Amino acid sequence: MDFTEDQLQRYSRHIILPEVGGKGQKKILNAKVFIVGAGGLGCPVGYYLAAAGVGIIGMIDNDTVELSNLQRQIAHNTKKLGVHKVDSAKETFEALNPDVKIIGIKERISKDNIIDLIKDYDIIVDGSDNFPTRYLVNDACVMLKKPLVSGAILRFEGQVTTILPKEGHCYRCLFEEMPPPGLVPSCQEAGVIGAITGVVGSLQATEVLKLILGKGDILKNTLLIYDALKANFRRVKVPKNPECPVCSENPTITELLDYDAGYCRI
Amino acid sequence: MEDVRINKKINIKGLVCPYTFVKSKLAVEDMEIGEVLEILLDYEEAARSVPKSMEELGQKVLKVEKINDTDWVLLIRKDRS
Ligand SMILES: [Zn+2]
After folding, report:
1. Which of A6, A7, A8, A19 to mutate to test the interface with B (most CBs of B within 10 A)?
2. Domain carrying residue B43
3. pTM for the structure as a whole
4. Do A9 and A97 contact (CB within 8 A), yes or no?
């Protein structure tokens, strides 16, 4: 196994794990993971995947770093204000680990570009902050049969679930339709305790590594809910919906839709 | 001990934990079941911890021998992939 001396040292705490070893670390180095969003969740997900040595990490985000991001978006810093988030994250992650290649895309993800963007990646991570993107990413991953590790945070609560198309549930099995804009919390209500993004993002990164390694139980058919105020984790069973509009035998949604409609980005 | 055919040798003198185990483990991963690895090391703690870790992984420790003031030789047979 041809690790450099630096790699032996860098990944030693992985290699000595029975579930990883040299073979597992090679799998990680050869993996390609695409992260939607370089914000609250994308930062910790990218950070830990870069530290783990994931060979290629794609990231899409069209925003630039603002002061209000820095309470939780740990890949960025005060010197990066005004810089594109994907450029800021690329610099942070490549400085952490020169083994990884970060491909930053300064665009908004949409029904027109998502298929081309994600088709060459092994695993997709949703760290987006809005419902239209969440449904778009879900539908595209189901159509392309790509594993998707989805995370969400709001106030003091976080959620993680892993979608393995064909094998388990999808996001629409859980919530068939997007909530109408009126029922979504307004922007003022959408506060978030910064540290919770680290909890949820780290859970997502761990799911990605387990998928790469083929080890452990995946959050398939399961929604893991973290309540920070109660310091409590809860697992909720999510059965695959045999009538799901996108992942059932006879789907009613067979092409990507226009998802945006008057949503506030929380 | 009767003659053991050694298939691979590594010299990890100068290395400390966890690199002693990292190198030993990677060497074993690249071997076939039944093959024997000889490890030469000079870190005393590793002469105890590497055999213990190898047994935990299901490998057979054939020998742990102090060969001079500073060095140990371990023989590990790969029993499990
Ligand atoms: Zn579904």
Report:
1. A8
2. 8-77
3. 0.92
4. no
